[in-house]
Amino acid sequence: LCSDVRQRIQQRIAQAFGISSASMYLTKPTFFSRINNTEAKTTHDEYWHPHVDKVTYGSFDYTSLLYLSDYTEDFGGGRFVFMDAGSNKTIEPRAGRVSFFTSGSENLHRVEKVHWGTRYAITISFTCNPDHGIGDPVL
């Protein structure tokens, strides 16, 4: 299932950005996130700060998020926000929704603090550098 989801997302990103999916490689970290309103224990838990994935993770060229819970039904807050100079663009998570973007400085973003409930998502990232590629996770 993980491999199938990764392949479908990879193909859609390649199509949207006009590149070959064969030139994209899964990279780390690919992770599951469970965000609620508990206090952050480390600075890495402070997801609400604006950041650029390429700077934060190094190997990311394309970032995707597969949402597993619904905004306003399962949690409050927790929307994904692109920090644009003119006006911010906000994505409301919905179970099954996939968002993706290039991971460079053109896509400064953050996640709003979750006020209640739990927000679940999977981050699946890709690199164009085969040296940074990893295999599909094995469960």
Can you describe this structure in just a few lines?
Strand 4 and strand 5 (89-91) form a beta hairpin. The protein contains two helices and nine strands. Helices cover 15% and strands 34% of the residues.
Please explain how this structure is put together.
With about 140 residues, the protein is an alpha+beta fold. The protein has a single domain, classed as q2cbj1_9rhob like domain (Jelly Rolls, Sandwich), CATH 2.60.120. The protein is built from 2 helices and 9 strands; from the N terminus they run H-E-H-E-E-E-E-E-E-E-E. Strand 4 and strand 5 (about 90) form a beta hairpin.
| Order of helix and strand elements from N to C terminus | HEHEEEEEEEE
List low-pLDDT spans.
none
What's the CATH first level? Mainly Beta
* Average pLDDT, all residues: 93
Tell me the strand percentage band: 25-35%
By CATH's scheme, which homologous superfamily applies?
q2cbj1_9rhob like domain
Give, in spatial order, the strands making up the sheet with the most strands. Answer: 1-9-2-6
| Total number of strands | 9
State the secondary-structure class: alpha+beta
By DSSP (H or I, 4+ residues per run), the number of helices equals 2
For the record, give the distance between the C-alpha atoms at the N and C termini, rounded to a whole number: 10 Å
Rg value? 15 Å
Domain tally = 1
CATH architecture verdict: Sandwich
| Helix share, percent | 10-25%
CATH topology value: Jelly Rolls
Largest sheet report = 4 strands, antiparallel
> Judging from the principal axes of the Cα atoms, what is the shape?
globular
